[in-house]
Amino acid sequence: MAATAPTREDFVKGLWRENPVFIQLLGLCPALAVTNSAINALAMGAATTFVLVGSSLLVSSLRRWIPKQVRITTFIIVIATFVTVADFSLLALAPTIHKELGAFIALIVVNCLILGRQEAFASRRPLRAAAADALGMAAGFSFALFLLGAIREILGNGSLFGVPLFGENFEPWVIMILPPGGFLTLALMLALFAHVKERRERASQAAASGAALRRAA
Amino acid sequence: MSAPEAGPLRMMGTLGLAGMCSGLAIVGIFLVTAPRIERNRAEALEAAIFRVLEGARSRVAYVLRGADLVPFESPDNGLPKEEAVYAGYDESGALLGFAIPAEGAGFQDTIKLIYGFDASARRVVGMEVLESRETPGLGDKIIKDADFVGNFRNLAVDPTVEVVKAGRTSDNEVDAISGATISSQAVVKIINASNERWMDRVTALTKAGGGGGGPE
Question: Model pTM?
Answer without folding.
Answer: 0.77
